[in-house]
Automatic annotation (TrEMBL), chain B:
The keyword Transport applies. Belongs to the binding-protein-dependent transport system permease family. HisMQ subfamily. It is found in: Cell inner membrane; Cell membrane. Keywords: Amino-acid transport, Cell membrane, Membrane, Transmembrane, Transmembrane helix, Transport. Its main location: membrane. This is Ectoine/hydroxyectoine ABC transporter permease subunit EhuD. Residues 22-210 form the ABC transmembrane type-1 domain. The chain crosses the membrane at residues 20-46, 58-81, 192-211. It is a multi-pass membrane protein.
């Protein structure tokens, strides 16, 4: 078996005096789909944000695709990564945000072609052809020339997914991608992800509150609480026979709600 | 003495001279604005730099420029700089001084405009691996321009109204010409009134133009297809 594509080693992360992770270890294998569930404030989103280099770490180290994410070798020693190293490492990763974060002044097509053209130097023709393919994939082929504000929340998030895929990341990070949506729009977004993993193999890390979706799509589910993995394993086992009291309490509260 | 009576013949006589001086005033304002916008942007971006030293020094440079009178700066550039071998024409000095002075004010406008862009936009840009230059040019500035328009416009109109200060370094702008006409003919009523009307006219037109630009500017920002 090859080395894990993501490895957290004794990672430490604080926001001021608040400790999010004190000694965090975590691994994801290539092409594994991992769902992270747990109460809010438990550090789930922070985990994804650290991987996307939106947040730094205060200790430990992280490897992505065999290379240190936040550190680089310099004269035989590991030193904090410079922006060039981070730029290189970011090419492995793509992220879809809870609040979409689409660029409102750009057409849907431009939202998707911007990064491939600017970052990878892909020609406009090629970028637009790929954007059209991606828009067809997310069922929005007719919206290429619309602006984000003319779309529904579900449509916006599907554009968000297409935009992330345009950079061809090997690891896709989904940060509560349906939490900001009206309930009737959730499934159209989740269907896109379902189709995606059917057609291609991805390493996918998702933070979600959609328990049925996590159960259905994941290879592994991690229950997070207070910056640590309380329990993890096969989704069927986690959802039907959780061992830990905290997992049981959390899942009961969820089932009670829905 | 007929000085208190409005003399139409004299008015028509001197109007062409005032109008041609108005060109100098407008040119100084136009070039001054371009320079001020460029300087303002540079100051604003440097004040967001990662280096604390750079941020602090720019803060003090801006504070210094804003807290000293424009006229002192104009005199300094025109009379002192040549001693260091940097001499410029009155117009070039005027443009430079106006640009620097108003650039300092505009940097605050630009800074708050840039700050008004949601954090999510920066994060999306980073997640897509856009460079800092790409992020500013394609994501941040096109959205930040609209909220900056009214205040920027006000500063440009204020700059326009301060161009008479350049008469102090012998620039032949409107007020200077009116003064010359007045002293040569012993009549100040018509030339100064004309200058006042010119300033009023241009300011009102400019204010209306700025309002129109703001109104027509898309709410989401400068649109990119």
């Amino acid at each position: 078996m090859s080395a894990p594509i993501i490895e957290f080693h004794n990672v430490k992360k604080c926001f001021g005096d608040t400790v999010i992770f004190s000694d965090f270890n975590f691994k994801v294998e290539e092409n594994e789909i991992v769902s992270i569930i747990g109460p809010s404030g438990s550090g789930k989103s922070t985990l994804l944000r650290i991987l996307m280099t939106l947040e730094g770490i205060d200790g430990g180290y992280i490897n992505v695709a065999g290379e240190s994410l936040w550190h680089m070798l310099w004269q035989g020693q590991y030193v904090p990564a410079n922006s060039k190293h981070l730029h290189k490492m970011r090419n492995h990763l793509g992220m879809v945000f809870q609040h979409f974060n689409l660029f409102p002044h750009m057409t849907v097509k431009r939202n998707i072609t911007e990064a491939p053209m600017r970052v990878k130097g892909v020609s406009r023709q090629e970028a637009e052809a790929f954007a059209e393919k991606l828009l067809a994939l997310v069922g929005l082929a007719d919206k290429a020339d619309s602006y984000p504000n003319d779309l529904s929340g579900g449509q916006k998030q599907r554009v968000g997914i297409a935009r992330a895929l345009a950079m061809k990341p090997s690891i896709l990070l989904l940060d509560e991608i349906t939490s900001a949506l009206d309930p009737e729009l959730v499934d159209e977004v989740l269907d896109v992800i379902r189709n995606l993993v059917k057609e291609e193999s991805f390493t996918m890390l998702l933070v979600t509150h959609e328990m049925y979706f996590a159960r259905e799509i994941s290879d592994r589910v991690c229950f997070f609480d207070q910056g640590a993995i309380v329990e993890e394993g096969d989704p069927e086992v986690i959802f039907t026979q959780p061992k830990e009291e905290r997992t049981k309490a959390f899942l009961n509260a969820y089932i009670g709600q829905s | 003495m007929s000085g208190f009576q409005w003399d139409w013949a004299f008015t028509w006589d001197v109007l062409p001279m005032i109008l041609s001086a108005a060109k100098v005033t407008l040119l100084a304002t136009l070039l001054g604005s371009i320079f001020a916008i460029a300087m303002g942007l540079v100051f604003a971006l440097l004040r967001r730099s990662k280096s604390r030293t750079l941020r602090t020094s720019i803060y003090w440079v801006v504070e210094f420029i804003r807290s000293t009178p424009l006229l002192v700066q104009i005199f300094f550039l025109y009379y002192v700089m040549p001693e260091f071998g940097v001499g410029m024409s009155p117009l070039a000095t005027g443009v430079f001084a106006l640009g620097l002075h108003y650039g300092a004010y505009l940097s605050e406008v630009f800074r708050s405009g840039i700050d008004s862009i949601e954090k999510g936009q920066w994060e999306a840009a980073r997640a897509l691996n856009l460079s800092l230059v790409d992020t500013y040019r394609d994501i941040v500035l096109p959205q930040a321009i609209r909220p900056m328009i009214p205040a920027t416009g006000n500063y440009i109109i204020a700059m326009f109204k301060e161009t008479p200060q350049l008469s102090a370094i012998t620039l032949l702008e409107m007020l200077q010409i009116a003064k010359i006409i007045g002293s040569e003919n012993f009549r100040y009523l018509e030339p100064f009134t004309l200058v006042g009307i010119m300033y009023l006219l241009f300011s009102v037109i400019a204010a209306y133009g700025i309002y129109q630009i703001e109104k027509r500017f898309p709410k989401e920002g400068f649109s990119l297809k």
